Amino acid sequence: MTLVQSKYTHWNKQFIAGEWVEGSSDKMMQNKNPYTGETLVEWRSSDENDLDKAYKTAQTEGKKWSKTPLAVRAKVMREAMMQMNERKEEIVDLLIAESGSTRLKAEREWMTTVRILEESSSFPYRMKGELIGSDIPGKENRVVREAKGVIGVIGPWNFPLHLCMRSVAPALAVGNGVVIKPASDTPITAGLLIADIFEKAGLPKGVLSVVSGSGSEIGDAFVKHPIPKLISFTGSTEVGRGIGKLAGEHLKDVALELGGDNAMIVLDDADIDKAVEAAVYGKFFHQGQICMALNRIVIDDSIYDTFVEKFTNTVKGLKFGDPADEKTLVGPLIHEKEVDRLLEVIEQAQKEGAKLLYGGKSKGSVLEPTVLSEVSPDNSVAQHELFGPVALLIRAQNEADAIEIVNRSEYGLSGSVFTSNIERGYRVAQEVESGMVHVNDQSVNDEAHVMFGGEKSSGLGRFGGDWAIEKFTRTRWISIQHEYREFPNI
User: Fold this and answer.
1) 109 found inside a domain
2) What molecular functions are annotated in GO for this chain (predicted)?
3) DSSP per residue over 307-343, as a string?
4) What is the sign, positive or negative, of the torsion defined by CA atoms of 37, 41, 45, 46?
5) Whole-model pTM?
């Protein structure tokens, strides 16, 4: 294979045990711009030998890292944050080119990633143990909190930098070694860029590695390897179930952030104009390729027709196409095959009674923002995560009916409720079976200091703030007998 030349060609190496090296596999892989089809970079895949070296080095160097002064770990986080600030334009460009991010989405992803690093810089100082009394004379019970060991992070392609850094930065901050397996569609922003940032920030060699290879070659081995204590995965529920099963067989902890059939409830007393604005953003931001994106918009019957008209008119005004254009809201899907899949979804929805009000056409990897009304709650397309720019508008008879419609989904990641009565919104939110619910806002929310996670088929575990510290550390009981014990009958 003749290697391509582009401004991204220098990202053709792996970062293993503190060195930039070629992978050891015979398999070559390609990274393409989803909008233009341009090949950005080609690289040699990692194999199981690379993976083994990465894990063993992360274990050895991670132990040393966990014993460094708190100020050293905090400084590395702050230096990484400075790298992010200084390289903003480079990072935004990479996100646009590699993941098809619109400029709006890329800049938001850069901003939220900076915030993750800022929050993580405080984590070394927030690890707390306990002293607990004892029933035994002279005994002191200490419950210590310490790094788990080595964390394996499997990164996604949709918010590659943010969703990888959400695990990597906290795990490093509390003293773990880390090995990343980035999504094959985004090896740079989901892995190599992170390694480069931390290398320049002063992270000791070997604490962090990136092994970029196909799931068929190193996917199972990444989870089964005896060294990592926890596998953090963000992606589809189907793949997450497989990882959870494999990790369970090897008695490993997991943090799984999976799919979401997210819904917004628009109650009869909602400010319709504000609800429409929020629903459009929550549905079409990053082409709907977000685990938290709205799938279903469930509207009270008394305002349904008005909402649908205003929603459709707003969608008609959205700019779609070139993600580099700062006015574009809806850019390309990650692959043209995803466009084909969604066109079939749109057709099937209509066969089951839905009405196509706008969109339903495509050009290359760009699918027009699409609106389907009169979607039955039992329509097959309303049962699964769409992961694309297709809005499903569902009619509910009343508040109780809306809650029932939302909760019949097997997923429970994020959701929202619109109402002019805040306490009513809070009460409805409590009835919605979802890890996160936002009153008078859309579903796409993620703040570094607040818990993040889903229920049901949307995953296990919590990210963010104190919840991240809990997830990436372990507690142990160490007792000290200050006065020797007397043992009966001895």
Assistant:
1) yes
2) salicylaldehyde dehydrogenase (NAD+) activity
3) HHHHHHHHHHT--BS-TTSTT-SB---S-HHHHHHHH
4) negative
5) 0.96
Active-site pick, 79, 109, 119, 257: 257
For residue 153, list its beta bridge partners.
180, 232
Residue with tokens 């070629």: 22
Q: Tens of pLDDT along 437-461?
A: 999 999 999 999 999 999 999 999 9
Same domain membership, residue 283 and residue 223: no
67 vs 92: CA distance, rounded Å: 35
Candidate list 98, 109, 164, 291, residue with the active-site label: 291
Residue 480 falls within a domain, yes or no? Answer: no
Q: Please tell me the distance from the alpha carbon of residue 319 to that of residue 323, in angstroms, as a whole number.
A: 10
Residue 448 lies in a domain: no
d(CA 282, CA 293): 6
Q: What is the rounded CA–CA span in Å between residue 169 and residue 299?
A: 40
Answer yes or no: 164 catalytic.
no
Least Cα distance to 15 among 239, 197, 270 occurs for 197
Q: Which of 439, 460, 483 is the last residue of a domain?
A: 439
Is 291 in the active site?
Answer: yes
In a domain, 44, yes or no: yes
- What is the spatial order of strands in the sheet that 177-181 belongs to? 19-21, 14-16, 208-210, 177-181, 150-154, 230-234, 253-257, 459-460
Domain termination site, one of 416, 439, 462: 439
Distance (Å, whole) CA 293 – CA 227:
35
With tokens 């809201």, the residue in question is 329
Residues 193 and 302 placed together within one structural domain of the fold: no
The range of the structural domain enclosing residue 26 comes to 9-258
Residues ≥6 apart with Cβ < 8 Å to 69: none
pLDDT tens by residue, 48-104: 999 999 999 999 999 999 999 999 999 999 999 999 999 999 999 999 999 999 999
What does the alpha-carbon distance between residue 20 and residue 210 come to, in Å, rounded to a whole number? 10
Please state the domain count of the chain: 2
- CATH code for position 248: 3.40.605.10
Q: What is the largest CA-CA distance in the chain?
A: 86
